[in-house]
Amino acid sequence: MSFNYLKQSWETLARTDAMWAVLSDDEKKGGRWNPAEFFETGRKDVHNILERLDHWKIPVHRGRALDFGCGLGRLTNALASHFKSADGVDISSEMISRATELHRASTNLRFIHNPHRDLSQLADNSYDFLVSLITLQHMPERISLGYLREFPRILSSGGVAYFQVSSFPDAANPAGRAKLQRDRDLTTPLYRAVRKMVAPRPPRMESHYCRLSRICSLLEQANTRIIAVLPDEAFVGPLVSHVVIFRKP
Ligand SMILES: C[S@@+](CC[C@H](N)C(=O)[O-])C[C@H]1O[C@@H](n2cnc3c(N)ncnc32)[C@H](O)[C@@H]1O
Predict the structure, then answer these.
(1) Overall domain count for the chain
(2) Which of 135, 151, 162, 204 for a ligand 1 pocket mutation test, highest count of atoms within 8 Å of Cβ?
(3) Staple partner for 33: which of 38, 76, 99, 172, CB 3.0–4.6 Å?
(4) Model's pTM, two decimal places?
């Protein structure tokens, strides 16, 4: 998957059925999400995250929060009621303009379009808390590692990051085994040659994983303190999901 394909796919998904692209519940496909229920899920997710951190006595300064891969601001909006201000950043201009419109009444929210492979638009040491859910799992490892490398830079000293990532295919799940096989095929020269000859793929939401060993070594190199790496039972499917929590010293 190229970076341009990733970008174009999310523009198309946002234009077609934005709420379903964010929370892909089969019953809600075709514009059937009720906006109030949709945003309530975000309030619950943020409440659970903050409660979890509180329970483990991981203090978080309630200054500036960032939601990476914010979509329609489902989590950004909820973060804004717990923090002084919240920014949401997304690759899709369509998601960003819809989020801006949906939350125009909130004064401590900001949505930033970032169609780049890095976060150079975001200043060093600017966030006390960073959250990212159901975003990194949709991009190939080489792209997600590029952003993860920047998370420590944009956090302020003492800042905490809480992110979810798919970490490996579940070999116990038939779809997980099929994904493993497909990924092996993708690396063969024959497969790559055939792919170059066929027509471009239509935009779609892809699932990818990023190895925990890669994430942890990157965070260790950045001198962050990894607080926890936890299996995330909320995500069931062909990929195993984890939550990673770290603090910038
Ligand atoms: C499934 S939605 C989740 C949205 C939000 N995190 C939530 O939980 O409500 C994934 C979002 O990630 C965004 N996204 C995908 N790749 C991205 C990237 N490279 N940088 C920033 N956002 C990205 C998509 O545009 C989409 O809005």
Answers:
(1) 1
(2) 135
(3) 38
(4) 0.91
Q: In what order do the strands lie in the sheet with 239-247?
A: 109-113, 85-90, 64-68, 127-132, 155-169, 239-247, 225-231
Question: What CATH number did the domain enclosing 223 receive?
Answer: 3.40.50.150
pLDDT in tens, the chain (249 residues): 788 889 999 999 999 999 999 999 889 999 999 999 999 999 999 999 999 999 999 999 999 999 999 999 999 999 999 999 999 999 999 999 999 999 999 999 999 999 999 999 999 999 999 999 999 999 999 999 999 999 999 999 999 999 999 987 666 666 666 666 666 666 667 766 776 666 566 667 888 889 999 999 999 999 999 999 999 877 667 788 999 999 999
Residue type at 13 in one-letter notation: L
Containing domain of residue 240, as a range?
A: 3-247
Q: Which residues line ligand 1 (CB under 6 A)?
A: 6, 10, 22, 69-71, 74-75, 90-92, 95, 114, 133-135, 138-139
